[in-house]
Amino acid sequence: MADLQREIPLRAVQVEALVVMKVIKHCSQTFPTTATGFLVGMDVQGVLQTTNSFPFPTTDLPATDGHHDNNAASNLAAAAPRAKVNAAYQTEMIRNLREVNIDANNVGWYTSANMGNFVTLNMIENQYYYQKDLNERTVALVHDVSRSSQGSLSLRAFRLSQPFMTAYKEGKFTTESLQKSSLRYQDILVELPLQIHNSHLLTSFLHQIPIKPLTTELPFPTDLASISAAGQSNQGAPLYPNFDSLDLSIDPFLEKTCDLLLESIETHHTELNNYQYYQRQLGREQAKITAWQQKRKAENTSRALTKQSPLPEDEWTKLFKLPQEPNRLEVMLNSRQVEQYARQVDGFTAAVTSKMFAVRTNLLPGESES
After folding, report:
1. Which pTM value belongs to this model?
2. Which residues of 22-47 are buried (b: 16+ CB within 10 A; e: fewer)?
3. What is the pLDDT of residue 241?
């Protein structure tokens, strides 16, 4: 049965509302420090059902000169999912869940993000650790605290693609290996559709929220027809008005995202300059090696004429040292992050542009006359 489940590819992720609330609470309390935790649930016909979550224990860093280093705390929290101490904590927690007959299968982990900045080496290493060692059918939930604070929940599910898992296992991210495998930065992460699931009791409660509570006592229904009539009369109850969508101010996250996009592009240019420097160094060393080999061949030709033993032609490996090619993984991750920022800018500008077109006659009086 387990082998049959593995043959069915994961096509969606279903997260319980309790898990969503626990993840939001944990990430909001630790912001701006990165928050991480593990997820439990079960796989049902290709749908990964997440039924509970638990945060990883945090380690307090000693203060330096009366100040806490937020970057060190974030790096320590980001690496928490693959720490040995947290692995033991996770195993103990799963054992306790099995004793009370609750879903105790490891289905992944979650992490917090700020302005969509989640494509990092720590995130890749954590997900690789889960997919390789703990459970192949695991996902990483990414909760963007900054975006969710504006009333739009940002919760996404990702997995590492199989080609990237193979390349990461080999540990070779050179130009030659990437050309052979045809691996691109778009092939690093695979996003799965995510659905939030509520219990029937909670769904019934949510349906009652838009309706204004009655001050009088409701009469008991006498038959099924009266129950149906009461349900139809409540269908037209209006929702509470929300005027936030009518705000014409430009989204402040658009400016911040553009700044982060420019920083990522500058990082990309820096990595490109480093690679060009490596190519120039490699070209100079190869020219020296070629000149040395030609000189040695000429010496061996002259020694052959005098019937002397030829000199070895592989001594260049001891005399010259080729520069090491920089790892291309950082460039791929940065390119994937640039794509993420570009998609966010596209989403922000779409909403702002539609509002501007709607009110352009008021902004440009001459437009209405023409």
Report:
1. 0.73
2. bbbebbeebeebbbbbbbbbebeeeb
3. 58
